[in-house]
Amino acid sequence: MKRRRRVTYRIIAGGTLWAFADLKQLMAKATPLRSGDVLAGVAASSAEESVAARMCLADVPLKQFLTEALIPYEADDVTRLIMDSHDATAFRPVAHMTVGQFRDWLLTPVASPAVLSALSRGLTPEMVAAVSKLMRNQDLILVARKCRVVTRFRNTIGLAGTMAVRLQPNHPYDDKRGIAASIVDGLLYGCGDAVIGINPASDNIAVLSDLNHMLDEIVHRYDIPTQTCILTHVTSSIGMIERGVPVDLVFQSVAGTQKTNQSFGVTLDVLREGRDAALSLKRGTVGENVMYFETGQGSALSAGGHHGVDQQTCEARAYAVCRAFDPLIVNTVVGFIGPEYLADGKQIVRAGLEDHFCGKLLGVPMGCDICYTNHAEADQDDMDVLLTLLGAAGVNFVIGVPGADDIMLNYQSTSFHDQLYIREVLGLKRAPEFEAWLQRMGLTDAAGQLTHHGLDHPLLTILEAS
């Protein structure tokens, strides 16, 4: 990595000379207000300082991010991953631009889906985080909508005009009949094309294996073109694979700094081991994207691993980790950590749009768990707003939880009914293979609308077998 002396960033705005000690501080001060940055002591002290920081950031050359690391190269393996994997050839079309010029260019028709796809490996997370700080919500939506990231395992996710749903049938004590009831409910509402994924209450390998066998049995008995996942630690998934358990996707929560990932008990090498283990099973039928990652603004701060970097930039760095392992799906659990990091509905909506934009621009197949905790200043109306905005922005998938209330994780998300609303409003289809299966099963008509069926539908036998 090239070395450069520390740069002090200065600008005169409103008759005041504003100075920022380094790029890390400039980025933090330019971030739209959120409670996590205030808690970390890195937020702008006033609206005036925030505006000045954005004006100053707009004049920073994109190349500067390749020479001034926000977290030292020697101290952080995520920084090394970002710098060592940077594609200089892909970067060349925008290498002459400042952050502000990049923002303006992204909003033009020249920045087409094909152009943005070719550019993605030439961008670093810090570049996309920086440009997002200069954007209004409508800008984040417009650009993200042009970014298409298509992935495959047993179906195809991310095609234009589609939106998938993770069917999340969690249960507070992993009761198989309770989980089965939620799976049936979700399938009858046309959910599950992103993944049928359980957050287990237990970390016991025997329990996890039993749940995995149950999911595998359901998918194969009814020939459902989807994938399953037990959202346990990557090492537990590796352990199940070594025992011959039929694992589809390997899951892990990841973050944007080495220290935070260590707090999750993972390293980049362990993630590689997990991916290799899943690939060795060759369970995909239409593709080999075998990883499922979750992220969320505030995780680095909560783990004491943020290095003074603002939480949105730390989050964007997590997408570089995800990108390195060619995942099937990635989602930001946007309001899950709590109001200490995103205080209210306005901050949650902004964060969700930022995360989706940054991930998509980096070439990551982004979804969103549109959610909040009960002690945040947010409600389901805020989630309706974010769902609508992300649907317009081309989100790859969202979450489907019975009644929007996850009884195991104790937070509020989006329901099976919510995805019907956004499909109707925006005309969004499901993954094509899954859409065809729903029609074969008599669950939807040719237009993708739910059909009426009786208590003798074959899917109800899932309950008998559980």
TrEMBL record:
<feature type="binding site">
    <location>
        <position position="199"/>
    </location>
    <ligand>
        <name>substrate</name>
    </ligand>
</feature>
<dbReference type="Pfam" id="PF06751">
    <property type="entry name" value="EutB"/>
</dbReference>
<feature type="binding site">
    <location>
        <position position="200"/>
    </location>
    <ligand>
        <name>adenosylcob(III)alamin</name>
    </ligand>
</feature>
<feature type="binding site">
    <location>
        <position position="408"/>
    </location>
    <ligand>
        <name>adenosylcob(III)alamin</name>
    </ligand>
</feature>
<keyword id="KW-0170">Cobalt</keyword>
<keyword id="KW-0846">Cobalamin</keyword>
<dbReference type="GO" id="GO:0031471">
    <property type="term" value="C:ethanolamine degradation polyhedral organelle"/>
</dbReference>
<keyword id="KW-0732">Signal</keyword>
<dbReference type="InterPro" id="IPR044939">
    <property type="entry name" value="EutB_dom_2_sf"/>
</dbReference>
<dbReference type="InterPro" id="IPR013785">
    <property type="entry name" value="Aldolase_TIM"/>
</dbReference>
<dbReference type="InterPro" id="IPR044941">
    <property type="entry name" value="EutB_N_sf"/>
</dbReference>
<dbReference type="GO" id="GO:0006520">
    <property type="term" value="P:amino acid metabolic process"/>
</dbReference>
<dbReference type="GO" id="GO:0008851">
    <property type="term" value="F:ethanolamine ammonia-lyase activity"/>
</dbReference>
<dbReference type="GO" id="GO:0005829">
    <property type="term" value="C:cytosol"/>
</dbReference>
<dbReference type="GO" id="GO:0009350">
    <property type="term" value="C:ethanolamine ammonia-lyase complex"/>
</dbReference>
<comment type="similarity">
    <text>Belongs to the EutB family.</text>
</comment>
<comment type="pathway">
    <text>Amine and polyamine degradation; ethanolamine degradation.</text>
</comment>
<dbReference type="GO" id="GO:0046336">
    <property type="term" value="P:ethanolamine catabolic process"/>
</dbReference>
<feature type="signal peptide">
    <location>
        <begin position="1"/>
        <end position="21"/>
    </location>
</feature>
<comment type="function">
    <text>Catalyzes the deamination of various vicinal amino-alcohols to oxo compounds. Allows this organism to utilize ethanolamine as the sole source of nitrogen and carbon in the presence of vitamin B12.</text>
</comment>
<keyword id="KW-0456">Lyase</keyword>
<feature type="binding site">
    <location>
        <position position="369"/>
    </location>
    <ligand>
        <name>substrate</name>
    </ligand>
</feature>
<feature type="binding site">
    <location>
        <begin position="166"/>
        <end position="168"/>
    </location>
    <ligand>
        <name>substrate</name>
    </ligand>
</feature>
<comment type="subunit">
    <text>The basic unit is a heterodimer which dimerizes to form tetramers. The heterotetramers trimerize; 6 large subunits form a core ring with 6 small subunits projecting outwards.</text>
</comment>
<protein>
    <recommendedName>
        <fullName>Ethanolamine ammonia-lyase large subunit</fullName>
        <ecNumber>4.3.1.7</ecNumber>
    </recommendedName>
</protein>
<keyword id="KW-1283">Bacterial microcompartment</keyword>
<feature type="binding site">
    <location>
        <position position="302"/>
    </location>
    <ligand>
        <name>adenosylcob(III)alamin</name>
    </ligand>
</feature>
<dbReference type="GO" id="GO:0031419">
    <property type="term" value="F:cobalamin binding"/>
</dbReference>
<dbReference type="InterPro" id="IPR010628">
    <property type="entry name" value="EutB"/>
</dbReference>
<feature type="binding site">
    <location>
        <position position="252"/>
    </location>
    <ligand>
        <name>adenosylcob(III)alamin</name>
    </ligand>
</feature>
<feature type="binding site">
    <location>
        <position position="294"/>
    </location>
    <ligand>
        <name>substrate</name>
    </ligand>
</feature>
